[in-house]
Design brief:
With 245 residues, this protein is α+β, with helices and mostly antiparallel strands. The chain contains 8 helices and 12 strands. The relative contact order is 0.19.
Amino acid sequence: DLIGLISTELQEDGNSRTNLLLLGAGGEGHDGQDLTDTILIASLHQEKKTASLLSIPRDLWLDIPGYGSSRINKIYYNLKDRYGSGPSLDILRQGVENITGLSIPYVIKIDFDGFEQVIDTLGGVEITVERSIYDTEYPNQWETGYTTFHLEAGTQVLDGKTALKYVRSRHSTSDFDRSRRQQELLQAIKKRAEHADLLQSPLKLVQLYEELREHIETNLSMAELVSLAKFGTQLQEEEIATGVL
């Protein structure tokens, strides 16, 4: 009942879908802190209770009339100093609208530290690693050299730091495989959040958002974030479709 009181309707396109652009970047203290190397579109159908996740490769070349062209992961980086963070995210959002033909009113960007904190707050996430990962060129903690990241195949619970490595590692696999792992982890976070009753509690959701405010940037209002949480409680795992551009 409380969720219903403080939530608000999310914007929908002509197909009754709510579309969001999800971005992951290094953040302060990390090499390439403003490169949005993780780019996904989440499309939610509130009436049918279904969702789709589409990953966009970071090397896709994007032309935005009036603002230039570059690899898509550098658009925000190129514009931030000139226009500010919020307007630059909005320009990138419009660029993704142009190449997909979708109406995407919302954007959410999270950095590495925020990503780790979300997972650690949830007590870790359970992931089934399909095949062992052995990456000898994973960036070290100072982002100045490399370290080896090794994760055995099988089902295990990952903490924040390990989960970040799981979704960032690419030298022993491919960018397409990395996109699949990112989608897989998003679904694992949703599942864990449900078990922790986070999606059922607006107060917990608001508290977590306040703790992560410096690591998350979005044009969603708090009431709209609560509406997303409400939708999350109604969405079954088998109703989530995934794809990679």
